Hints:
Helix content is 58%, strand content 10%. The longest helix is centred in the N-terminal third of the chain and has 22 residues, at 2-23. By secondary structure, the chain is an alpha+beta fold. It has helices spanning 2-23, 28-41, 45-56, 58-64, 66-71, 82-92, 105-115, 125-134, 140-145, 153-159, 184-194, and strands at 97-100, 162-167, 173-180, 198-199. It has a four-stranded antiparallel beta sheet with strand order 1-3-2-4, with helices on both faces.
Amino acid sequence: MIHGLLLLVVASLFIYGCAENMKKYPSIADQALIDLAKGFSGNDEKVISEVTLFVANPKRYFKKYEEDLYQRGIEQPTEVTSPIALIDALSKAKYLVYQDVASEPKWVLSQLDELSNGAISKVDCYKQMDEYYSNTKYGIGTFLDTEGEWPSLFECIKEAGYNLIGINEDSDSYALVLLQKKDLPVAIETASKAGIGLYFAEK
Length: 203
């Protein structure tokens, strides 16, 4: 009987251990989030590590980045969403331009150029965009969200070999990243698996 009881205890510990180990493996959505971090950052280890920590241990993630999150108005680990974790990691490592709707278009254009390592400023349309944005009274939101009689930022960026994409974090701000055209279909599919919306993918 004692032998049987011992076997039962060992079996229970084994099952518990397996269950604990299973928690270490991310879900499909979690893995997709990590894959997005890899894709948007070019496999930057710091970005991947930060997003992986969020996936593996949200409370530890919150404690480590509590000060930054507090600046966002986030006071509890449960308030951190997957888009926020991804955006913050990319932003810190300078793989993302984070601006609000009222941001000066000329400033946003220059930041996107830096993001492209100067590729955007080398195309012919850049000068036209820069001059137009220098004299406008509108915020960048006007040029991202509406069609009008002005030069297209999206088309200009495409001339440089990129697509302009926004990560939806359910706020009034824009989290803008650049993707090469060949990477866009995979990014859209991966974002869908992660439950993250992408803006401007069809433009």
